[in-house]
Specification:
mainly alpha, globular
């Protein structure tokens, strides 16, 4: 099972020396003795990217998919990565260039992994595939074929396949991921968490809800080992578990878990909004308690995850009286924070007003000072 690797997307290190890409087309005749392969499907390539000149495609369709998925962001970065290191006069200079190449490759792995995950949260499953393939290629180049560092790319490919309805292909990617994790005794718990989450998605897509819940429980357990049970990195497991309970008709359990997801994001977003605001400390003294110095900054994938999860919960619960007025106020407040941080003050203003109205109409005896302070803060920005 060493390389169950990519039915339609088989990978080899030597391909790195002969690639290129762009939106404009450049038909080419393959030079003698050089086999040019499509960036996405590994079939013979006949089109070249006219910008980077190191990526090739079998068709305009595959070039466009790659461009939308990742190539637009990395086109200018590929040439030095796919050009052999020239012979230089000293061993010291060669080592320096090799270290530079390794550093750039690792940066590319981080960039493409994040972009693939972000596209998945946005529902762009097809576009996520090229980003994941790039992450896989660079991971192979840096770490080798058997490394656990390849697992995150397999998982993005697996989740993309689930989203595209290609469950058998998803199973292949996940089998490769599981095999790699099993043979790595010291595998990081964060990787195990993500693996169990995607396995849960696959089982839920097959309708195997009991197996899905077991996988989500393992996801939450391993995420909590790394970040704690009340962290946004753990919230995804809760969210998907709630989805399964909702589909099973256990709505009260689902509502309780959705509320936990909202509470986790509420605290994180309050800290993020506070930390990133440029106003003097005194101007926001009552907005929220000063966050700890170690407060994390969300990356693009986590931001996309927050948008996807919180809006999904809102769409599900906005007309549901059983969700509870206090839960709805918390959800609306959290959405207001999310929009304040990412999506615009005007919509944030609507959500914060809805939160106050919901509390007043339901005559809730809860502390609304955080909501009032956010309303005043947004008013200075909108």
């Amino acid at each position: 099972m060493q390389i169950l690797l990519l039915n339609t997307y088989i990978i080899h290190n030597e391909i790195f020396q002969v690639r290129v890409t762009a939106m404009s087309l450049n038909p080419l005749a393959n030079p003698k003795g050089v086999k040019l392969l499509c960036e996405l499907c590994q079939k013979p390539a006949y089109l070249q990217c006219t910008s980077c000149r190191v990526t090739y495609y079998c068709s305009e369709e595959h070039q466009k998919v790659d461009w939308v998925g990742i190539h637009e962001k990395i086109c200018s970065l590929l040439l030095p990565l796919r050009t052999p290191i020239p012979l230089v006069s000293s061993e010291e200079e060669r080592k320096h260039r090799q270290q530079q190449l390794l550093q750039r490759q690792k940066q590319m792995i981080d960039m493409t992994r994040t972009e693939g995950s972000k596209l998945l949260f946005e529902g762009a499953h097809e576009a996520a595939v090229p980003a994941a393939l790039q992450a896989l290629r660079f991971s192979i180049a840096v770490y080798g074929l058997a490394s656990v560092e390849l697992v995150p790319a397999y998982l993005v490919l697996g989740e993309a396949s689930i989203g595209l309805g290609r469950l058998s292909q998803a199973e292949e990617y996940l089998s490769q991921a599981r095999w790699t994790v099993l043979k790595t005794p010291d595998c990081d718990a964060a990787i195990k968490s993500k693996m169990y989450r995607i396995c849960g998605l696959l089982q839920a897509a097959k309708g195997n809800f009991g197996e899905a819940l077991k996988n989500y429980a393992n996801d939450i357990y391993h995420a909590a080992l790394v970040s704690g049970p009340k962290h946004v990195k753990t919230s995804g497991g809760y969210f998907h578990m709630a989805n399964v309970f909702f589909r099973k008709g256990q709505t009260e359990t689902a509502h309780n878990i959705y509320s936990e997801v909202v509470n986790i994001w509420n605290q994180m977003l309050k800290n993020v909004v506070k930390m990133e605001d440029s106003q003097p400390e005194s101007a926001l003294a009552t907005f929220v308690d000063k966050p700890a110095a170690e407060t994390e900054i969300l990356d693009e994938a986590q931001e996309a995850e927050a948008i996807q999860m919180l809006h999904a919960i809102y769409d599900l619960q906005q007309n549901n009286a059983n969700y509870g007025a206090a839960n709805m106020v918390m959800l609306l407040h959290t959405l207001a924070l999310l929009h304040t941080h990412l999506l615009g003050y005007l919509k944030a203003q609507e959500f914060v007003q809805d939160a106050l109205s919901c509390a007043q109409e339901s005559e809730l005896g809860i502390d609304l000072s955080d909501v009032e302070n956010l309303k005043n803060f947004i008013a200075t920005k909108a």
